[in-house]
Write a structure and sequence with these properties.
12 strands, alpha+beta
């Protein structure tokens, strides 16, 4: 069995409109939020309320400057993170994932910026932050504003290019009468992907530590976030891919879950496709593509794309994808 030789796609230039939605507009929103908060500082109590209990008054407090610093930090960090994902790697431009990340950047800036700024606005003129009214009314307003702007931005951006636009139909391997083959491989998350994931978790830990310290421990429930992220990471590092007469099986190691099995009888087509994790799937691990389909994405490069008879698409990145796709195509052809 021999694999196919594929060429890694070149990085395509991102359209200006994508950068405007991902970076320019969010930066303006964050900058306005910081400017308004700075203007309010002289009229704010110190400390200010930063957390409200359910149905009660404020139960978390921090220095007045902390909210301004948090807003500025989130503005730089989140916008930079979204920009990195949009601008990183090859692949079709703009993909549905590019558009999703862009509108998420804008919506996040509006929602978070409005919440933090609104929580300070209700405290302007107060002598004691414990007298601050609830901010429940700000939440739905901020959410509606963020979603509305995101929807408008989505339709203003160019039409998305399908992530499988460059797929090459697999050439079925020639098997002798009665011959049966089994193809097994391991696919591991790339070092670069692991580094990015670790950096993201580290950023989350730092932000949560700051929030816990600034709130005198009131924000301690947030520690579940990095724990949850670590758990997700542990089941996305190594996968076992198997092609046999029964079909395609992909399962996480060492636990065996998550697992995806596609029976030969359910396969409509098999292709070899070049995959860029960030532009097509928004990251690594068990992923969902905004333009349809799911996948086990461990790195950039070649992968096997399977389309089932009901139109669903599944992609797995793996070395020697041509051989795996060819064997799977041979078996599915026998059942076609």
């Amino acid at each position: 069995m021999t694999g196919t030789t594929t060429t890694r796609p070149q990085r395509e230039r991102r359209p200006l409109s994508l950068w405007i939605v991902t970076v320019a507009l969010p930066v303006i929103v964050w900058a306005v939020a910081v400017a308004v908060q700075l203007a309010w500082l002289p009229a704010l109590p110190d400390p200010v309320a930063i957390h409200w209990g359910s149905g009660t008054g404020p139960d978390g407090f921090a220095p007045a400057w902390a909210s301004v610093a948090l807003t500025a930090g989130l503005g730089v960090g989140l916008t930079g993170l979204f920009a990195a994902f949009v601008g990183f790697g090859p692949g079709p431009v703009p993909s549905a994932t590019h558009k999703q990340l862009a509108v998420m950047s804008l919506a996040t800036s509006i929602f978070v910026g409005s919440i933090v700024t609104g929580s300070l606005g209700v405290q302007v003129g107060l002598d004691d932050a414990r007298d601050a009214p609830a901010i429940d009314g700000w939440m739905p307003l901020a959410l509606v504003a963020g979603v509305a702007c995101a929807v408008a931005a989505w339709f203003a951006l160019p039409k998305a290019v399908r992530s499988d636009a460059g797929a090459t139909p697999a050439e079925p391997l020639v098997l002798a009468p009665g011959e049966r083959g089994v193809w097994i491989a391991m696919t591991r998350m790339s070092t670069r992907a692991i580094a990015i994931v670790v950096a993201a978790i580290g950023l989350a830990v730092a932000a949560i530590a700051f929030a816990v310290a600034a709130s005198d421990g009131a924000a301690w429930p947030l520690v579940v976030v990095p724990v949850f992220l670590l758990a997700l990471c542990s089941i996305a590092l190594v996968w076992r891919v198997r092609v046999d007469l029964a079909g395609l099986t992909v399962r996480s190691l060492p636990f065996g879950w998550p697992r995806r099995r596609i029976a030969v009888a359910d396969i409509a087509s098999v292709s070899v496709v070049q995959v860029d994790p960030t532009s097509q799937f928004g990251g690594w691990g068990w992923r969902w593509a905004p333009d349809g389909g799911t996948g086990v994405i461990t790195r950039a490069g070649e992968g096997v794309l399977v389309v089932t008879r009901d139109g669903r698409r599944f992609t797995v990145t793996v070395d020697d994808a041509g051989t795996a796709a060819g064997l799977l195509a041979a078996y599915s052809g026998e059942n076609g």
